[in-house]
Write a structure and sequence with these properties.
The protein contains 42 helices and 24 strands. It is an alpha/beta fold. The longest helix is centred in the last third of the chain and has 20 residues.
Length: 940
């Protein structure tokens, strides 16, 4: 049965597909709107809603899924991390996610320098398994921490160091596959293929030798189309290498046997400066003579974007680059630093650069590489500040023609009035760029088609390939006739018929392509709300699926705990996009799919800083809750926890009331009733109210007799005032010792954080407006303002812009003390600390000021990435406890266990009230605020 014959009666066909898959043994099958929404897009411009989604647990289930789709004549699309930029990982039938369970490294053979992996294995997992043997998989795309090997095989992924180690195709020894015809076999060379398949391939190739020899394999990054050169008799024909880059349109990979390479003992980075990027590209053929591992190109546009972003966050500036406006970063690898340095000098002598810099320190080299890596994430916004889109992001030409191609490409951009941030693997002739195509305009589709057609003609004129590593997908398959002859296109069609006679596997890609301007994922013109525009900022690159905690990242803690797509920032954005579109998720703000996707969002704001696009899911969740419950009764935890500042203020009205409340909450029956009424998990301890608030203490506090110090206003948050006044007391002691005269606001104000996080935005706006007005008067007198609770401090610098329309610079304690004479601060020599930066601090203020202060004071501090898992009210609410603990297990708890082993007396530093509470409740250890640590080391 052909794929095209099953369009009628979609509900019946979908039910037949789901029942067939379950009968075949697949338990992880769903046709629910939520799951279909999650998998309707990848990292491309395209949206294709599948009939169903399958998450196989075993290879046998994967094979069975192919057979069921064959029998029913329904499309099947394989998906790894869903980071395809060309629309390779979306399809109208069954989408199969291999990343959840089929993700193991099956074997590393150090003597043979090989590995065996399942298709859903993430590249970083393989690299970690191979590293103890001094080995690595050669290709290294920028998405290495979430890209799967199956996806890399599908697209023939390359990355920066493919120049030295080869493309994925060059590092695949054999593949276990299921063809679209249902044949299960090992693909290595045609001799081991099924007889009928082998004979048909040999006959096809033998009849078209001239076409294959002249049109294919002309240069290393010719990835567009099928790589027919791997079937030529004179090239040691290999079906495995041929199937790499076919984008899942010919066969489904069930296991891969890969070649590993020896990692260089040492590397040296040479930075070369040129007048512009095209001038840098002109030097590439000469640079290649130095046998580099990588040659990356960038120019002032990417450097300016990184510099601006770092200035906005107050983080380290861009390291010095050689003179010029276009640069090559050249990595040399070898066994001896001296030999590499000599090679670097010889390279500089012939590179015709304006200026050069040789970097032997790995840390300094990493800082330069970060310009390229950070800039790649920022490329989703053009130099004009407009959204920049994929579609023409990895064209490639022979390196000798790269300079000429870049000049012509810049002229083409000017002709179409487009801009972007270019960079690329210049050693391979590959250019990366996202462009600010006016897709939201009335003629946006025509603009897309016009530019892509002209760009395809241009790259063909330069002997290049429309794709250099991402594949053609839905973005470029239609344009293949501009690059290949009719004979070559007929070859593609015949190959498709041999491997996939019914067209079941990934239809619309390469052969019989879908129109490049069909199925675009765009915000609907009728979308009125700001949220509707915001959620479409998510491009789907999937960094939220990567484990970045080791590098200090936070996003996305719930995904790290559950490994379910719905709990990633990207997954939530996809569901919100479908809500805005209103077709698949059709009940608006109250859609159950929306609330299921947002349920495990911790509102940590990690995505606001860690996502390359700055998606702020905490803000989106707040708006959804606000709209969904407007004028309606809310869940009881919104009142119990969202109104916590009000209850705290009432409870601590006097010491007697606070003591009585604490006694009552210690009675099991009362505590149980409170938990049930407030939807609080029974495993969570209820808070203890301070008998004497911080404000009460401060009212009776006598400042030092010296007085007259520089004024500072201490913002008193609910948590400090009513639960941990000792933190406020410590802060006053530290500030006064540093020469400050501390003052408070006249009234007990509130930033409204708990109302914001529970979506009670109208009340939060009123509270925050009053607080901002109070602080603006202080700021106008040039009196610095310091906050102690990071989440509350962040409100004034972030959420206030949205809710009130203006912000107030409330500093962290470390930011304020950065300007203080060091002699006025207590020494911390001998202090060893593990620090858990609060997620909101990570997202808005950063931890650099704290790190610098602690280091300058003599402390040894290790900052942990990830979230503590409590996250305000999240980990308290019934149904979230297990996920809360699982989040803590991703980074916090392992770090604390390691600290106990290494230094039982080490300090746990956590400025966030939630973070300290989580540490106390899960470990029984006490974490301290920075103010407490400093106060404990004041003289006397």
């Amino acid at each position: 049965m052909s794929v095209d014959s099953r369009e009628a009666e979609p509900d019946v066909v979908t039910a037949e597909l789901v029942s067939g898959l379950r009968a075949a043994g697949l338990s992880g099958v769903s046709a629910a709107p939520l799951d279909r929404a999650l998998y309707s897009s990848d990292a491309s411009l395209y949206r294709v809603v599948p009939r169903a989604v399958a998450v196989p647990r075993h290879v046998d289930e994967l094979v069975a899924a192919v057979e069921v789709c064959r029998r029913l004549g329904l499309p099947l699309t394989l998906r790894g991390a869903g980071t395809s930029i060309a629309g390779n990982a979306v399809g109208p039938g069954l989408v199969v996610d291999t990343s959840r369970h089929l993700n193991r490294v099956l074997e590393v053979d150090p003597s043979a320098h090989t590995a065996r992996v399942e298709p859903g294995c993430v590249l970083a997992t393989l690299q970690a398994a191979a590293a103890p043997y001094g080995l690595r998989f050669g290709p290294d795309p920028s998405t290495h921490n979430r890209a799967t090997l199956g996806g890399m095989i599908g697209n023939n992924a390359c990355g920066s160091r493919a120049l030295g180690y080869g493309r994925t195709a060059d590092n695949v020894l054999s593949l276990q596959v299921v063809s679209g015809a249902g044949e299960l076999f090992t693909a290595a060379d045609p001799a081991v293929a099924p007889v009928a398949l082998r004979e048909r391939i040999e006959a096809l190739v033998g009849g078209e030798l001239a076409t294959i020899r002249t049109e294919f394999g002309r240069f290393g990054r010719q990835v567009s189309g099928y790589s027919m050169e791997h079937l030529l008799p004179e090239r040691s024909p290999s079906l495995a290498r041929f199937l790499v880059g076919t984008e899942g349109s010919l066969a489904v990979v069930t296991q891969a046997h890969l070649r590993l390479v020896t990692a260089p003992v040492h590397t040296v980075l040479v930075a070369l400066g040129y007048p512009d990027m095209a001038g840098a590209a002109d030097a590439v053929p000469t640079v290649l003579g130095s046998r580099p591992v990588a040659v990356e190109g960038l120019d002032a546009r990417i450097v300016d974007a990184v510099r601006a972003q770092r200035a906005l966050r107050g983080s380290a500036s861009v390291p010095a680059l050689p003179e010029g406006s276009g640069w090559l970063l050249v990595e040399l690898g070898g066994a001896e630093v001296a030999e590499l340095t000599d090679r670097a000098r010889r390279l500089i002598a012939v590179a015709s650069a304006l200026d050069a810099r040789v970097v032997t320190d790995p840390r300094q080299a990493a800082e330069l590489w970060r310009i390229r890596e950070d800039g790649a994430g920022l490329s989703a916004q053009s130099p004009r500040g407009r959204p920049a889109h994929a579609g023409w992001e990895d064209s490639a030409v022979p390196p000798q023609r790269l300079g000429a191609y870049l000049r012509a490409f810049d002229a083409l951009l000017a002709e179409h009035d487009l801009t972007g941030i270019p960079y690329g693997h210049f050693g391979d002739g590959c250019l990366h760029i996202r462009l600010d195509l006016p897709l939201d305009a009335r003629d946006g589709r025509a603009a897309l088609r016009g530019f892509l057609t002209d760009a395809a003609r241009l790259v063909a004129e330069h002997g290049g390939s429309m794709s250099g590593e991402h594949g053609d997908g839905r973005a470029r398959s239609e344009l293949l006739p501009l690059m290949y002859s009719p004979q070559a296109l007929r070859l593609f069609d015949e190959v498709k018929r041999i491997f996939d006679p019914d067209g079941v596997l990934n239809p619309g890609v390469v052969v019989r392509p879908a129109p490049l301007d069909a199925d675009l994922r765009l915000a609907q013109p009728h979308a009125r709300s700001a949220l509707a525009r915001e959620v479409h900022r998510c491009t789907g690159v999937g960094k939220c699926r990567a484990d970045t905690t080791a590098a200090g990242g936070v996003m996305c803690p719930s995904y790290q705990a559950t490994r379910q797509e719905k709990d990633s920032t990207r997954g939530r954005a996809r569901v919100l996009q479908e809500m805005v579109n209103g077709s698949l998720v059709d009940r608006g703000w109250r859609s159950p799919e929306v609330h299921a996707a947002l349920d495990l969002c911790l509102s940590c704001k990690g995505c606001a800083s860690d996502c390359p696009i700055g998606v702020d899911m905490a803000a989106y969740k707040s708006e959804v809750l606000h709209q969904a419950y407007r004028g309606r009764l809310r869940p009881m935890d919104h009142y119990a926890l969202g109104w916590l500042p009000l209850w705290a203020r009432m409870t601590t009205a006097s010491p007697t009331v606070a003591r009585l409340a604490n006694r009552l909450l210690s009675v099991p029956a009362v505590a149980g009733a409170v938990r049930r009424a407030g939807r609080i998990d029974p495993r969570r301890a209820l808070p203890t109210f301070a008998p004497r608030t911080f404000r009460a203490w401060f009212a009776g506090h006598s400042p030092p007799q010296s007085g007259g110090g520089r004024g500072v206003l201490l913002w008193v948050d609910t948590f400090t005032n009513h639960f941990t006044p000792e933190v406020g007391v410590a802060a006053v002691r530290v500030l006064e010792a540093a020469g400050f005269s501390v003052q408070l606001t006249e009234r007990d104000e509130c930033c409204g954080l708990t109302w914001i996080s529970t979506g009670q935005r109208s009340l939060a706006r009123r509270l925050l407006t009053r607080s901002v007005e109070a602080l603006e008067g202080v700021a106008a007198q040039e009196i610095p303002i310091v906050g102690l609770e990071p989440s509350c401090t962040a409100v004034f610098r972030d959420e206030a812009a949205d809710l009130v329309g203006r912000t107030v610079r409330v500093r962290t304690l470390a930011e304020l003390l950065a300007d203080v004479e060091p002699s006025l601060l207590p020494p911390l020599d001998g202090v060893s600390a593990v620090a858990q930066p609060h997620c909101h601090q990570h997202a808005v203020m950063g931890f650099e000021a704290d790190r610098a202060l602690l280091t300058a004071s003599g402390a040894q501090v290790r900052a942990i990435g990830g979230c503590c898992g409590l996250a305000g009210n999240f980990g308290v609410v019934k149904g979230h406890y297990d996920v809360s603990v699982a989040v803590a297990e991703t980074a916090l708890l392992p770090a604390l266990r390691a600290q106990v082993d290494a230094d039982p007396d080490g300090v746990i530093l956590a400025d966030g009230f939630s973070c300290r509470t989580q540490v106390d409740q899960l470990t029984g250890r006490r974490a301290v605020h920075l103010a407490e640590l400093l106060a404990d080391h004041l003289p006397g």
